Amino acid sequence: MALKVLSALDTAKTQYYHFKAIVIAGMGLFTDAYDLFCIPPLMRIIGRVYYEDDNVPNSVVSVMIVIALLGTVIGQLVFGRLGDLIGRRHVYGLALMLMVLSSFGCGFSICTTKKCVLGSLGFYRFLLGVGIGGDYPLSATIMSEFANRRTRGAFIAAVFSMQGFGILASSTVTMVVCKIFERSSATASADHTPPEADIAWRLILMLGCIPAALTCYWRMMMPETARYTALVERNVVQAAKDMEKVLDVSMSQIAEEFPLPPNPPEYSLLSRQFFRRHGRDLLSCSATWFLVDVVFYSSNLLQSLIYHSYIDRQGTKKMNAYDEAFQVARLQAVVAICSTIPGYLVTVYYIDRIGRVRIQLLGFFFMSLVYFAIGIPYKFYWDGNTNFGFIFLYCLTFFFANFGPNTTTFIVPAELFPARFRSTCHGISGAVGKVGAIIGSVGFLWASLDEESGRPRPNGMTVALMILGGVCVVGVVVTYFFTFETMGRSLEDNENEDDD
């Protein structure tokens, strides 16, 4: 028989605390996107400041990409497991504080030599990745456990949609700071990069810690989720007290006459019984997240390089460091406004109407079509004045990624596992996804760029985009045959351990 407090959560009306939880949980995803998307334009400035040929070598770009993603893998595994062992809220604030401190540290270096600056940036980006990785399973799990059954998907998708606003904020801050420094400098030119440019990129990175820092207090004050308290800690009375404080229900409605939940099964995470009951779901969540991150991070992390042909038309050799970074940031902002954010918002609206599986299938399918459409005739788009068609189709990939598998792979693991394994399994799924991000982004970088010039190679870009389209086709197959629909299910359905 379901506990009253958990039934009340499933049927609770949407209220102020739900929206407050979305903002608190979403700030981690906001910071994640901010720090990820400010790197491409800032690499333009760093190249102008520290490299004679004005270009950061591919090897350095690869290291900066991989080291942050490697930290994310570690953070998802460690914090995901800790979220199930010692509680969601106990490690939630720690992940955010790590993100704030490392985000600030990314722009801080007491030396100005190339090796020291890049070493410091790499170290803090690794720590930032650990904090971001820890935030993923905790944010998704906490939001799913606070939400009601009817709108749970929309709430989790709303948390994840904060990434879109983080992208827009990153691009906006970069453009504003670049313009301020450019106007205050009398020596900035295509042939000369003023010393103040070394301050500009640091300032942009440091500003990214402010939104997350503003929510630290509220994260610390959040109560533990009732589902963890009741089902894992087995303290039903405390779960009812916590929910009385945050939801519009009275204690008489949720107090149990016999406040003892049923004894949970005794099998462990690595047991044969776990894999028999949950192995297929874990494999499905991990595989689809792996596939979408191969595609999504390949495009996102290298967005500025894919658009390099467009920027070259503006005459990069005539631009100063601030102008070049401004152009990259502006293109990112256009993509965010026209495709990324709308994709998130459409998912929020439809996720509890047509379901996770259908949206994931739709996203993978149309992404594959678009990648084939821009990959096969890639050279044609840039031979004349037809690059608008490429930009339009490329924006569609981001729309269908976010109105598709990029969002649903974040939602489904938070709804598919028992409370005592929920955060861990979400962390495992996300960690496998970030391994795909490492493979995809670095492989895409080396396959699509000329090693000497650092510019995109048409043949390499065609091959890379075609491979990404093929990966999306595999995503359609895996989703159709292995992904389980969670729309409308109670989270307590996952606690049913009957063999049937």
Automatic annotation (TrEMBL):
UniProt xrefs under SUPFAM superfamilies: MFS general substrate transporter (SSF103473)
Keywords for this protein: Membrane, Transmembrane, Transmembrane helix, Transport
Pfam families xrefs: Sugar_tr
Keyword check for Transmembrane helix: yes
Residue span, Major facilitator superfamily (MFS) profile domain: 21-487
Membrane-spanning ranges: 21-47, 59-79, 91-110, 122-142, 154-177, 199-218, 282-311, 331-351, 363-382, 388-412, 424-449, 461-482
InterPro entries per the UniProt record, alphabetical: MFS_dom (IPR020846), MFS_sugar_transport-like (IPR005828), MFS_trans_sf (IPR036259), Sugar_transporter_CS (IPR005829)
Localisation: Membrane
PROSITE patterns xref list: MFS (PS50850), SUGAR_TRANSPORT_2 (PS00217)
Membrane topology category: Multi-pass membrane protein
Protein known as: Major facilitator superfamily (MFS) profile domain-containing protein
Lineage: Eukaryota, Viridiplantae, Streptophyta, Embryophyta, Tracheophyta
